[in-house]
Amino acid sequence: MPEEIAVSAQGSPKESMREDIAIGLSTASVYPQNTEAAFQYANDLGYDGIELMVWAEPVSQDIDRVAFLSDRYHLPVLSVHAPCLLISQRVWGRDPAAKLARSVAAAEDLGAGTVVVHPPFRWQRKYAGGFRDLIDALEDDSGVDIAVENMFPVRTDRFFGKYEEAAGRMRRRGGGPGAAVSAFATSIDPTDDGFAHYTLDLSHAATAGADAIEMLNRMGGGLRHLHLTDGSGAAVDEHLVPGDGSQPCVQVCKSLAAGDFSGSAILEVTTSSVNTKAERREILSRSLDFARTHLERP
Questions:
Q1: Helix ranges restricted to H, the chain
Q2: What's the pLDDT score for residue 225?
Q3: I need a labelling partner for 122 at 20 to 30 A (CA). Which of 11, 14, 270, 277 fits?
């Protein structure tokens, strides 16, 4: 993890030239509202850009339409999240390799520098066998970074109270998910397998019982992308507002700000339970305030 450097008020020439870390909003953060709503919120609140989650919502799959929205709201697409969720298994066809290639092509068309992808599922044997080679080939051909995301297992304690009860059990265990099974063919921690580029998701780390700081250290210079969110250690993926859970969100942000991180930080928080647009706007505004405060460069 990069160490903070004591500098004068003006800073060294190298530090003064570092660009601010771009802070984007995931289109998943406005669900059940749509892709255009994410652009509207991001524009109104002052986000730097958008992460496009490609899933069942038709506009998210229409790259020409997304490009139109990017121009209309004057917001760049910073990253594309490939359709690899269970609920998007049929989006852009059934072949996961072809879907990843199409995601990279979409990123090129939109001017996004990063594609976020999950590890292959256990039943995707052919895809899993060629996953690393596919990523290497797509990166070489495109110049787009494919950042493999840390995931979490299915915890058996979810059947005995999956929120506060599960978080309490994890604390009493001193960390770790307890009895669990992974749905993925490779490790839920992508640093175990080794890739050129990574996405660190703090909510996933919470559910997995992983030490986010240790994972950040292992990712090192390969960290390309941050999903800035939070979790309490519940048995399900929570995607809380950063600061509302137990993860070291402040420490992670300050480490990236002090170092040479040149990727994007994306707020991927859940607002699906709110009743009004005003409530959603408050959550997204509070998330952005947290990011601006703790990602500010020295």
A1: 13-16, 35-45, 58-61, 63-72, 96-110, 125-129, 131-142, 164-173, 202-208, 212-219, 249-258, 277-294
A2: 98
A3: 270
The CA distance from 88 to 71, in Å, is: 26
Q: Which of these, 140, 119, 251, lies nearest to 185 by C-alpha position?
A: 119
Full-model pTM: 0.92
| Separation of alpha carbons 276 and 155, rounded Å | 32
Scanning the structure block, which residue is given the tokens 């707020």? 267
Examine the pLDDT at 218 and tell me if it is beyond 50.
Answer: yes
215: Cβ–Cβ under 8 A, 6 or more apart, which residues? Answer: 150, 189, 191, 200, 205
Q: Which residues of 98-119 are buried (b: 16+ CB within 10 A; e: fewer)?
A: ebbbbbbbbbbebebbbbbbbb
Is the distance from CB of 255 to CB of 5 less than 8 angstroms? no
**Which whole-number Å values give the CA distances from 57 to 49, 74, 87, 164, in the listed order?**
19, 22, 11, 31
